[in-house]
Amino acid sequence: MKKILVAYFSHSGNTREIAGQIHKMVGGDIFEIQPFKPYPTDYDAVVEQAKRELHSDFRPALKVKVGNIGQYDVVFVGYPNWWYAVPRPVAAFLSGYNLSGKTIVPFCTHEGSGLSRTVSDISSLCPKSTVLDGLAIRGKDVNSAHEKLSKWLQKIAIT
């Protein structure tokens, strides 16, 4: 039996919703990735901040850390797709732990950009991990994603 962690960063709540659904399907523990300094609520301000952070490869301080990441075999990593990349709090999370030998399972929410380069971002941040095929869910579809999630989990042999 593999020990599972569902870790996610969510700004609007869409990724939180998907993370919760995955957690119900696969079990394990759930963990919210939170930057120490929250993002603005204004959409344009968030977009500009995310763009600046991406271009400078900023890694924000995180509010809380996972106590013992070593106990997990599989780490689901959820995030909104910002600027075709993983948000910087997710980059900080992934680079803040030794995830060697672990299976990383990416999932994202988006408004038309799909996974973009996010899986390759994760592979670069976790070069000694196995990164499985990710799943992208449109923001407007998060509340009706159960069947899509179930098929994906079967395809990647998690359920």
Task: Write a structural description.
This protein is of the alpha/beta class and 159 residues long. Helices cover 33% and strands 19% of the residues. β1, α1 and β2 form a beta-alpha-beta unit. It is globular, with a radius of gyration of 14 Å. It starts with a strand and ends with a helix.
Total strands: 6
Largest sheet: 6 strands, parallel
- H/E topology pattern: EHEHEHEHEEH
Q: Quote the beta fraction.
A: 15-25%
**How confident overall, as mean pLDDT?**
93
User: Which secondary-structure class do the elements indicate?
Assistant: alpha/beta
Low-confidence parts: none
Q: Give Rg in angstroms.
A: 14 Å
Helix content: 25-40%
- Output the number of helix runs: 5
Distance between the termini: 12 Å
Q: What is the global morphology?
A: globular
Q: What labels describe this entry?
A:
6-stranded parallel beta sheet, alpha/beta, 159 residues, 5 helices
